[in-house]
Specification:
Helices cover 35% and strands 16% of the residues. With 219 residues, it is of the alpha/beta class. Helix 7 links the parallel strand 5 and strand 6 (171-175). 28% of the residues are buried.
């Protein structure tokens, strides 16, 4: 697919604290459905919580790399962890876009909740200058987009994600039945000494155990 035609690249950001099957399954389904050349998981920089042991940025990156090993369509992009200044999504899109050909398609994959919070993001109106937005939405979701996004949706939304044209500028929704897994749930299980197996890749769980992550603080 990387011949003379335009490439199709999608970005999925997150704290991935830790990365789990829900993240990975959604990423793989979108990569297959959209016939992407690659979907990049981008761990975000975030200061650790002070009340419980948390994974460092380097550890979160290592877990994502272990999780996607062997899956050629999923890649890891660590540019947000290398920045000294606050890491904003629009800066990441600008940075990736600068590395692509003008005709390459760039997609930003967001969950519904993240999409609804866009008006609070830094320079959010500029996101569509660099990419298309793909929004994961559950078939049973009955919430409406906030008013600040309705005019944008009316002007930019495309009903079929596969018909998105050009390098960026449009919004489409991908209907998905997500796995009911959360990083919060996994951290709670591990902090209380219970098993998180089958909620995240075995290699990631082994890394967590080897580095004694997410354990309850000792009294």
């Amino acid at each position: 697919m990387n011949g003379l035609g335009a490439r199709r690249i999608c970005l999925l950001g997150g704290t991935f604290n830790p990365v789990h099957i829900g993240h990975l399954r959604a990423a793989l389904e979108v990569a297959e459905f959209m016939a992407l050349d690659e979907l990049r998981l981008i761990p975000s920089a975030r200061p650790p919580h002070r009340d419980t042991p948390q994974a460092t940025a380097e550890q979160r990156l290592a877990m994502v790399e272990l999780a996607v090993a062997g899956e050629t369509r999923l890649k890891v992009d660590d540019r947000e962890l290398k920045r000294d200044k606050p890491s904003y999504t629009v800066d990441t899109l600008e940075s990736v876009r600068a590395e692509l050909a003008p005709s390459d398609q760039l997609f930003l994959l967001l969950g519904w909740d993240a999409f609804c919070s866009l008006p609070s993001w830094h320079r959010w109106e500029e996101l569509l200058l660099h990419s298309h937005l793909l929004v994961l939405q559950r078939p049973d979701a009955d919430s409406e987009a906030p008013e600040a996004l309705r005019d944008l949706l009316a002007a930019r939304s495309v009903s079929d994600p596969l018909s998105l044209e050009g390098a960026g500028g449009q919004i489409s929704f991908i209907w998905q039945t997500p796995l009911a897994i959360s990083a919060t749930q996994i951290r709670h299980l591990l902090a209380t000494g219970r098993s998180a197996r089958f909620l995240l890749p075995d290699a990631v769980l082994a890394y967590i155990q080897a580095h004694d992550l997410y354990r309850a603080p000792h009294a």
